[in-house]
Write a structure and sequence with these properties.
Elements lengths: L5 E5 L7 H9 L2 E5 L6 H6 L3 E4 L8 H14 L4 E4 L5 H11 L6 H7 L2 H10 L7 E4 L15 E5 L9 E3 L5 H16 L11 E5 L5 E9 L2 E11 L10 E4 L5 H18 L4 E10 L3 E8 L7 H10 L3 H9 L16 E6 L6 E7 L1 H5 L4 E5 L7 E2 L11 E6 L2 H14 L1 E4 L4
Parallel strand pairs: 1-2, 1-4, 2-3
Antiparallel strand pairs: 5-8, 6-7, 6-8, 9-10, 9-12, 11-14, 12-13, 14-18, 15-17, 15-19, 16-18
The structure holds adenosine-5'-diphosphate and calcium ion.
Length: 422
């Protein structure tokens, strides 16, 4: 019998189970490179993991790459896959150097930089808002010619950290300064990593938000599921809810697919899996916000796709990264049902004590997963700053209306309880 292929999974947090659970279904063994904030014991215990390979990708990428290459020479593995947004360029470089399937380094750099994504979309004639790049905190006046409201955001951010809506020109300077300060603190400390510095100002896209999860194999894109995120009007953009499948007319779903496929081509994304966020301007016209070349939400987007479309997104992603054709390329999946994700809002922030109401949720038959990634005593900062999701609840429903009702129930019953200020 042929040996099970091994895949190096880089920076997938071991407390988020979806990709680990998929390894068994795909018949692939995992060599886990733990994320910096993961614990060695938890990493070793995670599903499908046969080996743990610590690498200091942030601190010394050259040494990390040569350790990975040494490991490959000792016993070749079949693939390497990114488990979080930050490691996408490192993984692309490793794949190229070892001759494994993956993104080109150019495509990896494009999807890590919102400035590059905006330019590529514009050049390809795809939808894009007016935008201005601000390379220096004092150079914000260039954005005054945009149509207001605008959105100020880090060029290489995540999780809506430092993303601020600005309604009038008088408030722009202050918002750029605030975003710049958050970039300095969290994304490019001391201006050290120049490619992560920089701020983007773009015109506000007025309409509900959606997300599209795709697989890409040898340049062919399949949009697997479209999820509804709803109205997020700012001034800060904390995500709290997603539902799949999005209840939209066929012609709008087709327009979304066309836009998402076009964006893959514009960015040069030819291999792997992606998480694309869009706004439906005026409720009808899809315009891309951004694309991540990884499974969205630390992996939980897998569950929305699997539960709604029947496509085993995480297992398919693992297959693609070891060079195998995804199963859904040859076998049509059977659409499954309605799935929802609820991210408990951070609220005022502080040192977290517990999430009140969560025990009842854990035993609810509609609930598939409850995941807490921050323990008691952890410091959570309120938006536009960000430091983690208090808890994620994934549930399954008979209809979209039932999913909405359950979301409302969770919003009423789940609250983060913070330690008293002393
Ligand atoms: P991040 O990488 O931090 O998630 P995004 O570009 O996705 O950055 O922005 C975060 C959120 O801010 C989006 O999900 C969206 O709700 C809002 N947002 C960002 N840009 C715009 C825009 N041009 N128009 C409307 N909303 C926006
Ligand atoms: Ca985003």
């Amino acid at each position: 019998m042929p040996q099970r292929p091994k895949l190096v999974l880089v920076g997938q947090l071991s407390t988020l189970p979806w990709v680990f659970d998929a390894a068994g279904r795909a018949g692939i063994d995992l060599i886990l490179v733990p994320r910096g904030d993961d614990s060695a014991e938890a990493a070793a215990r995670a599903g499908g993991v046969v080996e743990v390979l610590p690498l200091d990708i942030d601190g010394d990428p050259e040494a990390a790459l040569s350790t990975l290459a040494d490991r490959y020479r000792r016993e070749p593995f079949a693939g390497v896959m990114a488990g979080n947004e930050k490691v996408v360029p490192f993984v692309a470089r490793a794949a190229r150097e070892l001759g494994l399937p993956g993104l080109s380094e150019d495509a990896a750099a494009v999807v890590r930089d919102k400035r590059s994504m905006r330019r590529r979309l514009r050049d390809a004639g795809l939808g894009a808002p007016g935008f201005t790049v601000v390379d220096d905190p004092d150079a914000w006046t260039g954005a005054l010619t945009l149509r207001f409201p605008v959105v100020v955001k880090p060029a290489s951010g995540f999780s809506s950290l430092g993303v601020i809506r600005v309604d009038d020109k008088d408030s722009l300077e202050q918002a750029v300064a605030r975003t710049w300060q958050l970039v300095d603190t969290h994304l490019a400390p001391g201006g050290g990593s120049a490619e992560n510095a920089g701020v983007l100002v773009e015109e506000y896209l007025d309409g509900p938000e959606i997300s599209a999860e795709s697989l890409v194999f040898q340049g062919q894109v399949r949009v697997c599921a479209i999820s509804w995120k709803g109205e997020l009007t700012g001034p800060y953009f904390e995500e709290t809810t997603l539902r799949a499948p999005a209840q939209l007319p066929a012609e709008i779903l087709a327009a979304i697919e066309a836009e998402v496929i076009g964006a893959h081509h514009a960015f040069g994304v030819t291999e792997g899996t992606t998480h694309t966020e869009l706004r439906l301007v005026g409720g009808v016209r899809p315009v891309l916000l951004e694309m991540g070349a990884r499974i969205g939400g630390g992996g939980f987007m897998h569950h929305l796709v699997h539960g709604s479309s029947g496509i085993d997104l995480a297992a398919e992603a693992l297959r693609i990264h070891v060079g195998r054709q995804p199963v859904c390329w040859s076998e049509e999946p059977v659409p499954a049902g309605h799935v929802a994700a609820y991210l408990v809002p951070v609220g005022k922030g502080g040192r977290i004590n517990r999430v009140r109401g969560l025990d009842a949720v854990r035993t609810d038959p509609q609930v598939d997963y409850v995941v807490q990634t921050v323990g008691p005593g952890a410091l959570l900062r309120s938006y536009p700053d960000w430091s983690g999701y208090p808890a994620i609840v994934l549930s399954r429903h008979e209809s979209d209306a039932a999913a909405v009702a359950y979301r409302d129930h969770l919003a009423r019953t789940l609250h983060v309880e913070y330690e008293e200020q002393g």
